[in-house]
Design goal:
The longest helix has about 60 residues. This protein is α+β, with helices and mostly antiparallel strands. The protein folds into two domains: about 400 residues, MFS general substrate transporter like domains (Growth Hormone, Chain: A, Up-down Bundle), CATH 1.20.1250.20; about 130 residues, Sandwich (Jelly Rolls), CATH 2.60.120. The strands form two sheets. It has a four-stranded antiparallel sheet with strand order 1-8-3-6. The chain has a four-stranded antiparallel sheet with strand order 2-7-4-5, with no helix packed on it. The protein contains 19 helices and eight strands. It is elongated and about 90 Å long. α2 packs across α3, α10 packs antiparallel against α13 and α12 runs antiparallel to α13.
């Protein structure tokens, strides 16, 4: 059922824990949102529900780049622990206010606090995954699992929220989500992920520059900037839809308050199907077409609900929307992750979170105005029409973004084929790829000579070399074979001469980068030592 990349990813305990916490957190978030929107709708109608959604999003939108910049200096596992524990505390405050009948203004304070803390959840998780995944395929597979978790959470959370609302009202529903966030905190306590070492240049950058580094990176890497801009329009429409679904359930479909949860669960049900379909994306190198199609299919069901407001049709269309959401997230987020280097990835996702949170909040703010001007059905048709038009106009931009990976796919695949590098996460492969220097040599040239000091390692891209010791031919190497590791790992002079027997194209990796990559991973050290021992045996040493 699951491909090898997915199975390989899920063997990693840290990935499993991160994915479990993600699932619980998404489910708790949606149950909480349903309960909060119903509570505020009860006290002030669609205007109060829109205000609650806006207040949850707008402060978080402005603070996301700042808090992400601060959190980026901390171990990501600890950050996730703080996020889930903090959300549990904020939601607990809201539950106390609702249950005890304290002034509703305190609920809005709790809403703002939870929203600010929540803005760290997605960027921390998305920046963490490349440090745990080991290849582009495994990264897409991990994103597919994340999408599955989001779909399950979006399915279970709102439905559970609706059930809890029916049983005990908003107080019980909100309190239960606080407990769920506490469980998510327990799940991430044992996540182990190495942090990149800060460079001296980075240490000299001021705090303001660090906080805004994500926005600067979006300018430096325009492909990522374009993708984030497209996501921002989609989340604007999602903000509108989140508020409108309350009015759709109560006024248009006559499903009552509990129906708000059930309609959102339909999105989760479709997302669950879509998450399984996204596993097919693991084998794809090109993700532009799935992204553009999914963007269009996110908006069309909203138009359909406005044109045909029948309960059965609405549930089916929202399931289609959920399916599109899963493929949009996996393809789009994978493209963003590929488009920026590891050094700024967390900051980019901090900026991403701030932007899409802001646009979600603006959508929530605009929704009541659209209802006032156009009624509920007109608001649905207008909002849903934005995305198909945008998908058509932006298709070429997305294709160019697909071409602009920071480290080309074929280079990563070549590095992954080296046994020493096979255990390394993508972040370390990116470090290696960034240190590679291209060299070309004519046939007959000695690339390294026996007895010389070792200062670098080589990887054959094209051509062939002969390895000789004391003028005795020992081996011939071709594409994907590396040489020069013995001198680096054992701190001895070159043990053999390596001569090009054909026109040769190689990557040269400096000693410092090679050792940093290999010695930072125990499995890579073992693989390197085994390779060195095997080659020493071939040389008779």
């Amino acid at each position: 059922m699951f491909g090898p990349s997915v199975r390989q990813a899920m063997r990693n305990r840290s990935i499993r824990r991160a994915e479990l916490a993600w699932l619980i957190g998404i489910a708790a978030q949606w149950a909480y949102l349903v309960a909060i929107l119903v509570y505020t709708y009860d006290i002030g109608g669609v205007v109060a529900a829109g205000l609650a959604s806006t207040l949850r999003m707008l402060p978080a939108a402005f603070l996301a780049p700042i808090v992400t910049g601060v959190a980026d200096r901390l171990p990501p596992g600890r950050v996730l622990l703080g996020v889930h524990a903090g959300r549990a505390a904020a939601v607990g405050l809201a539950a106390v206010v609702v249950i005890t009948g304290l002034p509703p203004a305190l609920v809005f304070v709790a809403i703002v606090l939870e929203g600010v803390i929540a803005c760290l959840h997605r960027p921390t998780t998305l920046a963490l995954m490349p440090a745990l995944a080991r290849s582009p395929q495994e990264l897409v597979a991990t994103n597919a699992v994340t999408s599955t978790g989001e779909a399950l959470g979006t399915l279970v959370g709102p439905a559970l929220g609706g059930v809890l609302l029916a049983i005990g009202g908003p107080g019980l529903a909100i309190a239960s989500t606080g407990v769920a966030f506490g469980l998510a905190a327990l799940a991430v306590m044992a996540i182990d992920a190495q942090r990149p070492v800060a460079t001296a240049g980075a240490a000299r950058v001021g705090r303001l520059e660090q906080m805004l580094a994500g926005f600067a990176a979006l300018r430096t890497y325009p492909a990522a900037g374009a993708l984030v801009a497209l996501f921002s329009v989609q989340t604007f429409v999602r903000g509108i839809l989140t508020v409108l679904l309350v009015a759709v359930s109560v006024e248009l479909l006559l499903l009552g308050e509990a129906g708000v949860g059930y309609l959102n669960s339909a999105i989760g049900a479709g997302g669950l199907i879509g998450a399984f379909l996204t596993l097919a994306l693991v084998a794809r190198r090109r993700l532009a077409l799935p992204y553009s199609v999914s963007l269009a299919m996110w908006g069309l069901p909203i138009v359909g609900i406005g044109l045909l407001p029948e309960p059965a049709i609405a549930f089916a269309l929202l399931a289609v929307l959920g399916l599109a959401n899963a493929t949009l997230d996996v393809s789009g987020l994978s493209l963003v992750q590929r488009s920026v280097p590891n050094a700024v990835r967390a900051r980019v996702f901090g900026a991403f979170e701030g932007i899409v949170t802001l646009t979600f909040g603006l959508g929530s703010l605009v929704a009541p105005l659209l209802v006032e001007l156009l009624d509920v059905r007109g608001a649905l048709v207008l909002a849903g029409s934005l995305l198909p038009v945008l998908a058509l106009v932006s298709a070429g931009i997305v294709r160019r973004a697909d071409d602009s990976a920071v480290v080309p796919h074929d280079r990563l695949e070549l590095l992954r084929s080296v046994p020493m590098f096979e255990p390394l996460p993508m972040t370390m492969l990116e470090l290696i790829a960034g240190g590679l220097v291209e060299e070309r040599h004519a046939a007959g040239v000695d690339v390294i000579r026996q007895g010389d000091p070792g200062d670098c390692w080589y990887l054959v891209v094209e051509g062939q070399v002969a390895v000789a010791r004391d003028d005795r031919l020992v081996a011939e190497l071709g594409r994907g074979d590396g040489f020069g590791e013995i001198a680096l790992l054992s701190e001895r002079p070159r043990t053999a001469t390596v001569r090009a027997t054909q026109p040769l194209y190689v990557y040269r990796l400096p000693r410092s980068v090679f050792l940093e990559a290999i010695t930072g991973n125990p499995n890579a050290v073992i693989a390197g030592e085994e390779l060195a021992a095997s080659r020493l045996a071939e040389l008779g040493l």
